[in-house]
Amino acid sequence: MSESQLRQDLVRYARSMYQRGYSSGGAGNISLKLPDGNVLATPTNSSFGDLDADTLSKVTMEGELLSGQKASKEILMHLAIYRQRPQCGGIVHLHSPWLTALSCLPDLDYANALPPITPYYVMRVGKLPVIRYIRPGSPVIAQEVEKLAAEHNSMLLANHGPIISGKDIREAVFNAEELEETARLYFMLKPFGMNTLTPENVDELNTLFNMK
C-alpha cells in the first residue's frame, strides 16, 4: 500500500474514533509503520476529528522528524512498542471513557486489569497489564511500555488511558474498540458479579489462535 493511501487510512480511522467518542478534543494519538520503516503519527495538539493527511508527522524509529508537523510528545511510547514488536504496524493511544475510568480504580490487578469476560477480549488482547502513573510525555512511560510490549499488544496507563497495537492500523483500531467495549461490560456487570471464562477456556483460545 502506498504512503498516500496509508495517510488517508490513518485520518479516516482517527476521525471514526473521534466521532464515536473514543477521543475528545486533542486527546490521544495514533500511528502506523510505513513500508520504508519510518512512522507516521498524529502531530502534537492535534485532534482525531480534523487531521490533515499532508501534515501528519513522519519520524524515524529514533524519533527524528522527517516531514510534517512536530509529533505528539507521546510518540516515544509508540516507538518503544515498534522496537519490541516487529510484527506491529499500527498503534492507538486513547483517553476513551471506560478504559480511562478503569485506569483510575483502586486495587487494580497490575498484571491484568480486566478479567476474561468474553472470548473476543482474550483473542484480541489477552491480558491488560497496568503501568504505574507517570506524567504524560515523560520518557519514563516509554521505558515502562518497552518492558511489557514484547509480550502484550495492549497496556493501561494508570490514571491516563490505554495504548493498543496491531499488525496494521486497522487491527490496532479493532483491538482498541474490543478493549473499550470489554471495559464498558466490566462496569455494567460489576454490581451484579459476572461469569468469566475459565483458565481452560482461555488456554483453548490461546492455543487455537496463537495469541501473544
Which descriptors apply to this entry?
212 residues; alpha+beta; 8-stranded mixed beta sheet; 7 helices; globular
Shape: globular
Over the alpha carbons, how many angstroms does the gyration radius reach? Answer: 16 Å
Largest sheet: 8 strands, mixed
Separation of the first and last Cα atoms: 26 Å
Strand content: 5-15%
Computed structural class: alpha+beta
| CATH class membership | Alpha Beta
Instruction: Give helix and strand order, one letter per element, not per position.
Output: HEEEEHEHHEHEEHH
What's the average pLDDT?
95
Q: CATH homologous superfamily, by name?
A: Class II aldolase/adducin N-terminal domain
Q: Would you identify the regions where 5 or more consecutive residues have pLDDT less than 50?
A: none
Total domain count: 1
Domain Class II aldolase/adducin N-terminal: 8-187
Keywords: Carbohydrate metabolism, Lyase, Metal-binding, Zinc
Family: Belongs to the aldolase class II family. AraD/FucA subfamily.
Catalytic activity: 3-dehydro-4-O-phospho-L-erythronate + H(+) = dihydroxyacetone phosphate + CO2; 3-dehydro-4-O-phospho-D-erythronate + H(+) = dihydroxyacetone phosphate + CO2
